[in-house]
From TrEMBL, chain A:
Pfam families named among the record's database cross-references: BATS, Radical_SAM
EC number per UniProt: 2.8.1.6
Stated family: Belongs to the radical SAM superfamily. Biotin synthase family.
Classification via InterPro entries: Aldolase_TIM, BATS_dom, Biotin_synth/BioAB, Biotin_synthase, Elp3/MiaA/NifB-like_rSAM, rSAM, rSAM_sf
Cofactor: [2Fe-2S] cluster; [4Fe-4S] cluster
EC class (word): transferase
Name of the protein described by the UniProt record: Biotin synthase
Alphabetic keyword roster: 2Fe-2S, 4Fe-4S, Biotin biosynthesis, Iron, Iron-sulfur, Metal-binding, S-adenosyl-L-methionine, Transferase
Limits of the Radical SAM core domain: 65-291
PANTHER family (UniProt xref): BIOTIN SYNTHASE, BIOTIN SYNTHASE, MITOCHONDRIAL
UniProtKB/TrEMBL annotation, chain B:
Cofactor dependence: iron-sulfur cluster
InterPro entries: BsaP_C
Keyword entries, A-Z: Biotin biosynthesis, Iron, Metal-binding
Superkingdom in the source lineage: Bacteria
Function: Required for the activity of the biotin synthase BioB.
Name of the protein in its database record: Biotin synthase auxiliary protein
Pfam families for the chain: BsaP
Family statement: Belongs to the BsaP family.
Keyword Transmembrane helix set for record: no
All residue ranges annotated as the Biotin synthase auxiliary protein C-terminal domain in the record: 38-60
Length: 345, 64
C-alpha cells in the first residue's frame, strides 16, 4: 500500500492515536491521515506532554537535530490589490501600513544583518498579486548586489502568484526556494481571500516544484477555521509535500477584517505544531509570525521540543519579532545546532 | 503628542489596542508630532519610520 493510500485507508483511528502515530509516523515515516490529525487535535489535556514528546522524537528521527535559521525582508510593502483578510498590507483595508519600496543598498544591508545571525536563508518578500517587470528587475538587481557584497546566503523569494516565464526567471537568478502560502484549508480559503483562489496558489507551487526550486508553503492558524479544517489543512500540505512549512499564528491587524479575532492560546498552538509534525514527518516546520504573541518565550522553547526545526529570527514584514540573539541563545541552551550554509549547498 | 499606533491624541481616551502585547510587536505607524501616517520599513534587526513633515526616526538600537 502506498503512503497516500495508507493515509486514506486507516482503520486504527479509534485506537490510541499516539500509539498508532508512534508505529506509523515515528517508525515508518508515514504521516497521519486527516482523521488521525483530528484525533490528535482532540486529545485530552493529560496527553499533551506525550504528544509534544512524540512530535519531537519524530522530528529528530526524520529531520535530525539541526535548526534552519532564516531572516525575511519586505522589498515592497503595502498597497497590495488582493484582499487577504489577515493582511495589513492589503490596499483594500483601512490599515495604518503605507506603501514602501526598499532600495538595493537597504536590501544588501538586510541580507548582511541576516547572515550575521548565522542564518542560511534570506527571503525577499513583496506584497503583490504577482510580480511585474519592475519588481522582478529589482529582485534581480538586489540578488546581484547581495552576491557582489560577498554574501553567499541562500536566497528565497515570496512574490505572489507566478507565470511559468517568471518561475524560469527566478531559477535563472539563483533563487533556490519559493514561498507561497496556501494559508489555510481549501474549504476555508474563500472565507479568507476572495480575489484569487486556493487553486491558483497551488498552480504556482506546482510550477515552482517542476522548475527545480524548493517549495515553501504554509499558512496562518487562528483565522476562524474549524478543528476539522485544521486537520484538512495539515493533510493538504502533506499532499503538496513541500520542503518547508512556515507556521504562523494570527496577529490581529488593526483595520483588517480580522482585527478583533482573539489570538490562539499557547497550548492550542503547541498542539497544532505537534499535529502538523505528525502529518509532515520529513518536512521542515518553521516557527514564523505570531509566536511571540501566542507562545511567548517559554512556549517557543516548548515548540522547539515539540516538532519545530526551523525559525525566522528577528523581525517580520510588518511586525517586530523578539531579538534574534534571544532565539540563538535558546537554540544554544537546547543544544540544537544551527544548520550551516555548507550543509545547504 | 499623538499615539504612534493609532494616530489619536495621546491624552484622548484609553487606547486599549495601543498598549497591549500586540502593540508591543508593532513599529510606530503615526508621527507623534503631527499624526501623519509614516512610511515604515522593517528590517531583520530594526525599523525606520519616515514622516513627510518631521523626517525619519529609527529603532534606537537594533532590535536583534
Amino acid at each position: 500500500m502506498t503512503a497516500a493510500a495508507e493515509r486514506t485507508h486507516d482503520s486504527t483511528i479509534e485506537a490510541d492515536v499516539l500509539a498508532v502515530a508512534r508505529e506509523q509516523v515515528l517508525e515508518r515515516g508515514v504521516g497521519l491521515s486527516q482523521e488521525q490529525v483530528l484525533a490528535v487535535l482532540r486529545l485530552a489535556d493529560d496527553r499533551f506532554e506525550d504528544l509534544l514528546a512524540l512530535a519531537h522524537e519524530v522530528r529528530m528521527r526524520w529531520c535530525g537535530p539541526e535548526v534552519e535559521v532564516e531572516g525575511i525582508i519586505s522589498l515592497k510593502t503595502g498597497g497590495c490589490p488582493e484582499d487577504c483578510h489577515f493582511c495589513s498590507q492589503s490596499g483594500r483595508f483601512p490599515t495604518p501600513v503605507r506603501s514602501a519600496w526598499l532600495d538595493i543598498p537597504g536590501l544588501v544591508e538586510a541580507a548582511r544583518q541576516t547572515a550575521l545571525t548565522g542564518a542560511t536563508e534570506f527571503c525577499i518578500v513583496a506584497a503583490v498579486r504577482g510580480p511585474d517587470a519592475r519588481l522582478l528587475s529589482q529582485v534581480r538587481d538586489g540578488i546581484k548586489a547581495i552576491r557582489e557584497s560577498g554574501n553567499d546566503i541562500q536566497i528565497a523569494c515570496s512574490l505572489g502568484m507566478l507565470t511559468q516565464e517568471q518561475v524560469d526567471e527566478l531559477v535563472g537568478m539563483g533563487v533556490h526556494r519559493y514561498n507561497h502560502n496556501l494559508e489555510t484549508a481549501r474549504s476555508h480559503f474563500p472565507n479568507v481571500v476572495t480575489t484569487h483562489s486556493w487553486e491558483e496558489r497551488w498552480d504556482t507551487l506546482r510550477m515552482v516544484r517542476e522548475a527545480g526550486m524548493e517549495v515553501c508553503s504554509g499558512g496562518i492558524l487562528g483565522m476562524g477555521e474549524s478543528e476539522e479544517q485544521r486537520a484538512e489543512f495539515a493533510v493538504q500540505l502533506a499532499e503538496l509535500d513541500p520542503h518547508e512549512v512556515p507556521m504562523n499564528f494570527l496577529i490581529p491587524q488593526p483595520g483588517t477584517p480580522y482585527e478583533d479575532y482573539v489570538p490562539i492560546e499557547g497550548r492550542e498552538a503547541l498542539k497544532l505544531v505537534a499535529a502538523f509534525r505528525l502529518a509532515l514527518p520529513r518536512t521542515m516546520l518553521r516557527f514564523a509570525g505570531g509566536r511571540e504573541l501566542t507562545l511567548g518565550d517559554l512556549g517557543a522553547e516548548q515548540g522547539m521540543l515539540g516538532g519545530i526545526n526551523a525559525i525566522i529570527v528577528g523581525n517580520y514584514l510588518t511586525n517586530l519579532g523578539r531579538p534574534a540573539q534571544r532565539d540563538l541563545d535558546m537554540l544554544a541552551d537546547l543544544k540544537m545546532p544551527i544548520k550551516a550554509l555548507s550543509d545547504s549547498l | 503628542m499623538f499615539c504612534v499606533h493609532c494616530g489619536r491624541p495621546d491624552a484622548e481616551g484609553e487606547h486599549p489596542g495601543c498598549r497591549g502585547a500586540r502593540a508591543a510587536l508593532e513599529p510606530p505607524r503615526f508621527c507623534p508630532e503631527c499624526a501623519r501616517r509614516m512610511v515604515v520599513q522593517i528590517t531583520p534587526v530594526g525599523w525606520s519610520a519616515r514622516c513627510s513633515r518631521h523626517g525619519e526616526t529609527t529603532s534606537a538600537v537594533p532590535t536583534g
